[in-house]
Amino acid sequence: MRCCSYQLNVLFDRSAVTLEFLSNNPSVAQITTRLAIYGQAKPNKCDDETFVALVACCPNLRALHLRRWNFTSVRPHLLSQCSFLTLTSFFIGAQSMLTVAGFFGLLAVMPALKRLGLGRVEGGYDSDSGSGEERPDEEKFATPACSLTHLVVSDDWNIGFWHYGHLLSRSHDTLEHLELHWIFDDSVGDAVADALARCTRVRHLTLIGNDFANERIIAACPTVCSLELVVPPSDAEAAAMRAPLRSLELVNCYVNDPESFIDAAWERLRERLPMAPALSMIGFRLMRTRRSGARETEGLRKLRKACKERRILLSFHG
Question: I want to staple 145 with a disulfide (CB 3.0 to 4.6 A). Which of 105, 111, 165, 251 is the partner?
């Protein structure tokens, strides 16, 4: 018997209409495995009651993406009416109003969750917590029920989310993949490193555009063997690694000229490659340009030759 699944994208100003459609079409709701709630420039109309009703309509939901809505948390009596037991992937977009307490309240009812993407959680926490500079007692937050394998923090918008120890409290033996992008509070690096010190299986780290030192995070993960960075590892970053580096991805975030990016990377790689005998893959993620690919510069030719001699797979993609 052939199985099928359905992805449902919901604009928040049409959420009530979508809810009515799912209620009247249970066969569609039954096969909906991915639900994405998006927003436009209009006032957000997806409240927590509508949100819970949408999820409750989809008994086989696996992935939930929230990009805009207007509730800061889901009220407890509503959470008790909805099952998140099948959810394995949860993404919170940047344009949201969810507080930290509301965020942990949701994680407490997602025991099967494996992949979490954190785009933004409000720094104010809740209406009673006072200044956003004060760190509330984590004992007041619900305990996550999930054991994560993948955590992606896309951008914390300078809000200072420090609660990585609480977030990963059940993921010490499961977390394998961590991505940290554009975190502008240096103190967050210490919170992340302290939490990672308890995690025993982290294999991959992506560290892009953060204000804290990468080596602090790398040193906290003795099993990491795959890195995604903006430039090849520095001496300090290489020294922080305890396991052999096997995979390296370089991301062009700043340079519009792919040739310059590759040539600059080669200048570092030429010294680093002899000290990374286990390296088997180097990837370049290039900024999209009108031209396809990069011109064959002297640096690129030398890079290709060095990778061929060391049997390193070299790849380029946009």
Answer: 111
Whether the CB-CB separation of 146 and 118 falls below 8 Å is answered with no
| Within a domain: 118 | no
Q: 125 to each of 45, 102, 151, how far by Cα in Å?
A: 21, 8, 21
Beta-bridge partners for 247: 226, 281
Domain for residue 313, yes or no? yes
How many other C-beta atoms are found inside a 10 Å radius of the C-beta of residue 173?
10
How far is 315 from 299, CA to CA, in rounded Å? 15
Domain contains 266:
yes
Tell me the torsion sign for CA atoms 245, 249, 253, 255: positive
Would you state the pLDDT for residue 3?
53
255 found inside a domain: yes
pTM above 0.70, yes or no: yes
CA–CA distance, 22 with 57 (Å, rounded to integer): 7
First to last CA, the chain: 38
Cα distance between residue 248 and residue 283, in whole Å: 6
Answer yes or no: is pLDDT of 132 > 80. no
Task: Give 109's contacts (C-beta < 8 A, 6+ positions apart).
Answer: 79, 82, 84, 145
Place of tokens 């690694």: 241
Query: Residue 73: what pLDDT?
Result: 86
Overall size of the chain counted in residues: 318
Residue 234, SS3 per DSSP: coil
Read off the pLDDT of residues 69-92 as tens digits, 9 standing for 90 and up: 778 889 988 988 787 999 999 998
Overall number of domains in the chain: 1
